[in-house]
Structures are given as C-alpha cells and as structure tokens.
Design goal:
about 260 residues, alpha+beta, Thrombin, subunit H, six-stranded antiparallel β-barrel, six-stranded antiparallel beta barrel, globular
C-alpha cells in the first residue's frame, strides 16, 4: 500500500509539478494582485485571474471545467508553453501578452492554481514592469526578493501597529526574509509593523514592513473580511534568525 501511494505521489509531481509554490524558486520581488488575464494556446484560451506577479514568474487562478464524465483534470501539463495575455481590450495585443512556460499546477478551491515562468525578450511582456510599478514597486525593488525558501505554516500571531494598536492574525508562510500573514485589517504598503509570535517555544517580536496586500479570499473583495499581507522582515538579531531557522526546520519536519 505504501509503495503504490509513493508511486502515485511521484507520478503526480512529474505531471503536475512539485507541491511547493513557484514563488520559492523565483528570484524577484512579487506583487499580490487581482488582474483578469487569459492563458492562450494556438487553438483555445482559458480565462483566469493573475494573483501574483514578478519579473520572472506569475501565479494564475483558473476555474475547473469537468469533462464529459464529470471529472476535472489538469488543463495544462508541466513544461507546456503558451501566452499570458491581459484581458484589457484597450491596449494593442503586442502590449498585452507575454510568453510563459507552465512550471506547476495544483487544485485550489473550485479551480486550479497555475505557476508559470515568464520569458521577457523585449518584443512582448512590456506590460509586466508597468504593472509592477502600478502596484507600488520601484525599479530598484524589481530585483530584490525574500531570502530563503518559504515554508507553509499555520501560526497565530499578534500584529502591532504604532504604539497601542494590536490585531490577531495568522501566519501562513515563513522564510528567513519575511512572511505572509492573514490580517483582519488592511495596512498601507511600506507601513512598519511588529509581529509577536511563538517561535521554537519562545515568544519573540519581529520588525516587519508591508510590501504587498490583497483580499485573502475572492469573496473578501466586497466585504473586506480578511487581508493577505506580504511582509519583509527588518534587521534581525542573530538569536531571532536562529529561532526562525529552528521553526522552519520543525515546520518542514511536521509537514513531511
């Protein structure tokens, strides 16, 4: 039984890609966004929503469409090449498309998350740096990134804003350079925060800065129930860095 389960997981990784976020392999700063796009092949296209973007990669959410038997199969395969096209009709096509390669695809809610690698050759894809700028990144920030591989986690924490404001939140991924946090409050970009969390059995307060923010779930666009905040850590002490490192190791061990 164990052998066949391992075999199925191995085949799944080959066909669909690793379960790990493509953002762990990308080297440039990401924005979190919600932009209507299309993934186009020569004979058809699939509408979707661009939910994060950097100079070298993107993540797109698409709906799952069942076949005649009612089965929802992955619409793309790893390594497949296609066009990522902005759905805006006001721009010429050359200014709305970019060449991409599928790196992974996995189920997400009622659809699929598709991670793609971008190929910017100068002839297309000029909208990508423009969109990054519109969402608040400077040219200098395009090529920075969070250090370290991100590890999924589910840790409660307290978000401190200013002298006295505090909010209860949930950290959903962590690396040595930053974290993704679900918050009941929307913060402005570049606002400094203090995160109080238990790491490796010790309560610590870490300095952080908001770099990206978007509604956590699609239904939250209207009621603003919760927000996904991308945070970058400030300067950490040696002890704080070691605590984060131990927490990452423990989290990965428990997830295996």
């Amino acid at each position: 039984m164990g052998f066949f389960a391992d075999l199925r997981r191995h085949i799944h990784r080959i066909l669909i890609g690793e379960g790990r976020d493509f953002s762990q392999q990308r080297r440039h700063s990401r924005i979190l966004c919600s932009v209507p796009v299309r993934l186009e092949l020569s004979d058809h296209y699939t509408p979707g929503t661009l939910v994060d973007l950097s100079l070298d990669g993107a993540r797109i959410q698409i709906e799952a469409v069942p076949n005649r038997l009612g089965i929802c199969r992955p619409p793309y395969r790893r390594g497949q090449k296609m066009k990522l096209v902005l759905a805006y009709q006001s721009r010429e096509r050359r200014d709305r498309e970019a060449s991409v390669t599928v790196r992974w695809i996995r189920p997400s809610g009622a659809g699929w998350d598709v991670g793609v690698q971008l190929h910017l050759d100068g002839s297309s894809g000029g909208w990508i740096p423009r969109l990054l700028t519109e969402y608040g990144l400077t040219q200098e920030a395009f090529h920075t990134r969070r250090t370290g591989v991100r590890t999924p986690t589910r840790d409660k924490l307290t978000i401190g804003l200013g002298v006295s404001q505090q909010f209860e939140g949930m950290m959903i991924d962590l690396s040595l350079g930053g974290a993704a946090v679900v918050s009941p409050k929307a913060f402005a970009r570049f606002v400094p925060l203090k995160l109080t969390i238990n790491l490796a059995g010790k309560e610590v307060t870490l300095p952080a800065q908001v770099v990206h923010i978007r509604p956590y779930k699609e239904q939250d666009f209207h009621n603003g129930a919760s927000w996904l905040c991308g945070l970058r850590f400030g300067e950490l002490s040696r002890d704080e860095g070691e605590l984060i490192g131990r927490h990452l190791v423990e989290s990965r061990r428990h997830s295996d």
